[in-house]
Amino acid sequence: MEVENSNDSYFKSYEDLQIHKLMLSDEPRNSAYHEAIFNNKTSIEGKVVLDVGAGTGILSVFCAKAGAKTVYAVEASETYKLAADIVKENQMENIIQVIHSRIEDLTSAQIPGKVDIIVSEWMGFYLLHEGMLDSVIIARDRFLKPNGLIFPEAATIYATPCSIPSIYKYWENVHGVRMESFSRLLREEAYKKPLTEKIPPECLISEPEVATWIDLREVTSDDLNEIKLRHVAVSNKVGTYEGICLWFTCTFPFPRGPSNTEPVSLSTEPDEPETHWKQTLIVLPNSMNVEVGSPICYDLTIKRSTDSNRRYNIELIMLDPEEVQHPEFCRCFMTKCILVNAMLEKYARGEGDGAE
User: Fold this and answer.
1) Residue 67 zone, left/alpha/beta (φ > 0; ψ -120 to 50; rest)
2) How crowded is residue 6: how many other Cβ atoms within 10 Å of its Cβ?
3) Pick the catalytic residue: 121, 172, 269, 274?
4) Which of 278, 288, 124, 281 is nearest to 193 (CA)?
5) d(Cα 204, Cα 280) in Å, to the nearest integer?
6) Three-state SS across 35-48?
7) Domain definitions of the chain by residue range
8) How far apart are the first and last CA of the chain?
C-alpha cells in the first residue's frame, strides 16, 4: 500500500507501541466506547460496521462482541498486523476483516455495499489536531447507509480563561528560590506550541463558552478549516488570568428502543477523570490579576495549516473590554453592563415605561 508523502510521518507515528499503550490505558476513553457500543447492542446486532483508523482493533472487537455481523477494521499504519493478531487472539476472524489501507484508498471490492455503522476514535488534542475527522467524513459520505449510526455522533470544543500554575506560580518559589527567568523562557516556548497538560478545575476563572459544536452526520471538511470564537468572559473568582483552556466532549448515539439509558458522553473537562488528551492551554505572555466580575475579552481562531491538513494554528487575540460589545445580561462589573442589567430586570418585573 502506498500513501502520500505528507502522511507518511503521521501513519509511521502510530507504529509506536507506546502511543497505543497510552490510549489503551485511558480508562475513561475505553469505558465510554465500550458502554456506548453495548448500550446500542440492539442497533449493532446483525449489522455491518466500519472501524475507521482501527489501530489495535479494540473497538472492532467491542462491536463484534456486541453482535455485529461483519466489522471492517481499516488501518493505514503497520499496526494492522497487530490488529490482525488481536482479532485472532479473540477468535473473531469470522467477523472482523482487517484491511491495510487508508480510508481514502478503499475500493468497493474491499467493502462491497454500504455499512450500517461507523465507529472511530479520531479525536486529537483540542479535538481537531491530526485532522483524522476528515477521514471519518470521507467514510461517512462513501460507505454509510442513510440514517446510519456514527460513534461518536457529535463533539463540542469549549474554551475559558484560566490560570496556569505550572508555568507561572510554581516558579515564584522553588524551595525558596525565585525562578522568574526560567518561567519566562517556558512561556516563550509555549507561544510557539500550546501546552498539553491536566489543569486543576479550580484554575478555571470563568464559565466555559462553546467554541464549536460538530454534528458528525452533517459536518463537511470545509467546515473544519476555520473555527472562530469571540468570548466576553466574566471572572467568577479572585485570581490570575494567564491563558485559555480548551477541552472537548463527544456524545455517542442515543440507544434506540424502549430504554431509559442516557447517551454516553466522553469528556476531557478539567473536573472529569483525566484522559490522555488532558487539556490544551494557550499561554499569555504576562499574568493579569482579576476580581469577581472582571471582564475578559478575546478572539480565538483555530485554523487549518496551509502546510498540512493534519495541523492547525491557534491564534489568541486579547481585546479591550471597553471596545467590545457585551452580551445581554453580562454580569461583569463595568458600568454599562450594570446599567443594562438593571434596566432589563426592571422591564422583566413589569416596571418599565408604559407598564400598568
Assistant:
1) left
2) 11
3) 121
4) 281
5) 13
6) HHHHHCHHHHCCCE
7) 6-325, 326-355
8) 78
The answer to whether residues 152 and 205 touch, using CB atoms and an 8 Å cutoff, is no
Whether this prediction's pTM lies above 0.85 is answered by yes
Decide if 172 is catalytic: no
- The residue annotated as part of the active site, out of 75, 130, 153, 242, is 130
3-state SS assignment for residue 250: strand
CA distance 322 to 330: 13
Q: Give residue 241's identity as a one-letter amino acid code.
A: Y
- Exposed, middle or buried: residue 330 (CB in 10 Å: 0-12, 13-18, 19+)? buried
Nearest to 129 by CA among 276, 232, 18, 269: 276
Q: Per the structure block, which three cell numbers stand in for 193?
A: 506550541
Range list of H helices, 247-304: none
- Nine cell digits for residue 222: 470545509
**CATH class of the domain whose range is 6-325:** alpha beta
User: Amino acid letter at 16?
Assistant: D
How far is 155 from 46, CA to CA, in rounded Å?
A: 27
Residue 142, CA distances (Å) to 55, 99, 152, 302, 353 in order: 21, 16, 18, 27, 60
Asked if 168 and 183 touch (Cβ cutoff 8 Å), the reply is: yes
Asked if 127 and 248 count as a contact pair (C-beta separation under 8 A), the reply is yes
Would you state the pLDDT for residue 339?
85
What the block records as the C-alpha cell of 12 is: 509511521
Count Cα neighbours of 118 within 13 Å in the Cβ-side half-sphere.
30
| pLDDT means over runs of 10, the chain (356 residues) | 50 78 95 97 97 97 98 95 96 97 92 96 95 96 97 98 95 96 92 93 97 97 96 96 97 80 93 97 94 96 92 94 91 88 73 53
- The span from the CA of 281 to the CA of 37, in Å, is 31
Contact 88/213 with Cβ under 8 angstroms? Answer: no
| Closest listed residue to residue 13, CA positions, set 124, 155, 89, 118 | 124
Res 260: pLDDT: 67
To the query of whether residue 315 is one of the catalytic residues in this protein, the response is no
